[in-house]
Write a structure and sequence with these properties.
By secondary structure, the chain is an all-alpha fold. It is 57% helix and 0% strand. The longest helix has 18 residues. The chain starts with a helix and ends in a 23-residue tail after the last helix.
Amino acid sequence: MKKRTKEILERLDEQYGTEFVCYLNHDAPWQLLIATMLSAQCTDARVNIVTEGLFKKYTSVDAFADADLKELEQDIKPTGFYHNKAKNIIACMKDIRDKFGGEVPRDIEDLVSLAGVGRKTANVIRGNIYHEPSVVVDTHVKRISNRLGLTKNKDPEKIEQDLMKELPQNHWILYNIQIITFGRTICTARSPKCQDCFLQKYCKEYKI
């Protein structure tokens, strides 16, 4: 690992600790899968408000697989893009019930075969449920990894590959958790708080 990358990770560890935190509330793997699908173009805080009632109403994979499309659309409407999300959730839960015996698969190829599940969602499941080393490339990781010079790519899959080479495995999941907090509080997309940033010396975009 490069000295520069090591220093970045050390500073993130000092600032945010090394505990694995999942910001989406869930009690079962299928609940995290649905919450992650709902989180596309939506804040985790809003998803948690919606899923609190949602998981009381639909208490199993079967309940979602057999859900009425129009009713589910209304139940998840506050998360946005609810037509697509509701359709994908029902199709995804049907596949989990019919193809995977009701269990959320751990293999990445099986996960991305599910309706509405891309690599980002698959890696959230692999990292949080199965503790498989995975790099999750969300909007914060994409933006900040470029700013820090850990990748020059814009394509999430290429960024994932770059970070897998650049970061030690024991930081793959942790990096995402830390960068989400960093991206929400300091290195925001618009008007980043550069003066308060503890990583400014590593930033490609910081101008003194």
